[in-house]
Amino acid sequence: MLKKTGEYKAMHLRSAIGYFCTALAFGLAAAPAARASVLDDVKQRGVLNCATGDAIPGFSYLNPKTSKMEGLDVDLCRATAAAVLGDPDKVHFVIVTGKSRFPTVTTGQADVGFFSTTVYPVRESAIAVDFLPINFYDAGGFMVKASTGVESVRDLAGGTICTIQGTGTEVALANLFKSQNITDIKVLTFDSADKVFAALGSGRCNAMATDKTALAGWRGSSPKPEDYKILREGTGKSPFAGFVAANDSKWRNLLRWTVFGLFQAEEWGITTANLEEMKKSPDPVIRKFLGAEGGIGEGFHVSNSFMADMIKAVGNYGEMYDRNLGPKTPYYIDRTGTPNASWVNGGLLYSPPWD
């Protein structure tokens, strides 16, 4: 009896093990393949889909005079295409709004977003995006018609402030009104900045609220900039960064270091003009940075020349800034003494070491 019981247990154990192995085999066969990185998709497609805007002068703007896209965010799209594909023109601009920018990236319609987007904790925790390094430090503000004599938000009592739907400005305005017990100002939203500016010009709104750099851009691009005034009063910090869909470290890490590389190139004084000369630098770290001797790109699954390709295409961060927001543009915003200067000049733009 004991012998039979032992044999039964052994048979039962062998059957259980066999069933488990069969189930495991079927499970492995049925399991979906590991999700490919966006980097693999971009390389296979041969074109970068970059989410950006077309109505923010200085950042992401379709210039009506040239019919070309321009701005700091546009250059970041082109820099990314150069880093990944070796060609800044292999980019398709996916035009988005404040409401559509995140779904466009998280659903795969775009590979990355550069759209004057403020970094907030809820955007990473609830929307499932990962932010790249901050590339511009801004602040929220207000613009009014100069003829109104308005000097502060409280002067707008009984009036209407217009802003863009789906942006942090909506939340910032609500917080400002609560903190200062303002109850007699209405907020009207539109789906794009150009509609907000048009509403201000037509008198439908008494003030336009958005990031101060955007306000400066709209004022600078208007036929009579002197007709508009940006108030000194603001709504708080607004640091801008690009973003990608969450949980794709292969793609995110590459793009993080491309942004850092643009900062580092400015710090080292590497420009489009002296790029070939700098490849012969006596500093081995610079030669490696540019892919002239060894390189870093292979570890990120791109060419070792990815940094040199970016600099050749768009320049270093300082060159990008000057081209889009420098003193020779209508949207000039001085970097001197601001967080947007390189850290060596007292700013906050800083790259980790490249040794």
UniProtKB/TrEMBL annotation:
<keyword id="KW-0813">Transport</keyword>
<feature type="domain" description="Solute-binding protein family 3/N-terminal">
    <location>
        <begin position="47"/>
        <end position="278"/>
    </location>
</feature>
<protein>
    <submittedName>
        <fullName>General L-amino acid transport system substrate-binding protein</fullName>
    </submittedName>
</protein>
<comment type="similarity">
    <text>Belongs to the bacterial solute-binding protein 3 family.</text>
</comment>
<feature type="signal peptide">
    <location>
        <begin position="1"/>
        <end position="36"/>
    </location>
</feature>
<dbReference type="InterPro" id="IPR001638">
    <property type="entry name" value="Solute-binding_3/MltF_N"/>
</dbReference>
<keyword id="KW-0732">Signal</keyword>
<dbReference type="InterPro" id="IPR051455">
    <property type="entry name" value="Bact_solute-bind_prot3"/>
</dbReference>
<dbReference type="Pfam" id="PF00497">
    <property type="entry name" value="SBP_bac_3"/>
</dbReference>
